[in-house]
Amino acid sequence: MTDRESVLSILRDDARASTADIARQTGLDEETVADAIESLEADGVIRGYRAVVDPDRAETERVRAVVELDVRLDRETGYGDVARRIAAFPEVETLRLVSGDYDLLLEVEGESMNEVSSFVSQKVAPLSAVTNTVSHYVMDTHVEAGIVFDDDDEDDRRSVTP
After folding, report:
1. Average pLDDT of the chain, as a whole number
2. Which residue among 62, 95, 109, 119 is least packed, with the fewest CB closer than 10 Å?
3. Exposed (0-12), middle (13-18) or buried (19+): which is 86, by Cβ within 10 Å?
4. CB count, 10 Å around CB of 41?
């Protein structure tokens, strides 16, 4: 594993790890770690750093939806073209080209169900390449970015005795 891969592996688990922490975990010196991080950022491998927020504990409530998009392409338009148009909207959290029954998987976040549904119906669905949308509103989040939110240790199963 290269120095960059070692540093990246640690940052994936904890983006707040200091260069000193990473150096200790990898056996590298702090300058090498700092250079690796700078190189990863400059090369666009690391695109940003985000906190993983538990929506049930956040002070402001947000509504999230996962939207399936069917797309019809023509000779001048590819998936990347459609994706760039959709990704330009600030409501878009994630947009992926996927295999299966639909083409693109869109994650959208807003302040209300009305805001999210208006975004999909007024900005995404009217795009000429988009032929169909199916929205799924997120009811609860149990795991995000590998972090488990269900930290309730209570066992709610009923005991069964013979």
Report:
1. 91
2. 62
3. buried
4. 13
Between the CA atoms of 12, 16, 18 and 22, what dihedral angle is there, to the nearest 10 degrees? -20
Spatial neighbors of 59 by CB under 8 A, at least 6 apart, are none
Q: Enumerate the β-bridge partners of residue 30.
A: none
Least confident of 12-16, 32-36, 79-83: 12-16
Quick one: pLDDT at residue 162? 67
What's the rounded Cα separation, in Å, for the pair 105 and 108? 10
Tell me which residue has tokens 């805001």: 115
How does pLDDT run across 41-89, given as a tens digit for each residue? 999 999 998 888 887 788 888 899 999 999 999 999 999 999 999 999 9
Structure tokens at 60: 């402001």
Strands 63-71 and 147-148: unpaired
Positive or negative: CA dihedral 86, 92, 98, 101? negative
CA 82, 85, 88, 92 dihedral sign is negative
Q: Which two tokens stand for residue 127?
A: 């795009």
The whole model's pTM is what? Answer: 0.78
Residues contacting 140, CB < 8 A, separation 6+: 56
**What value does the mean pLDDT take over residues 102-128?**
96
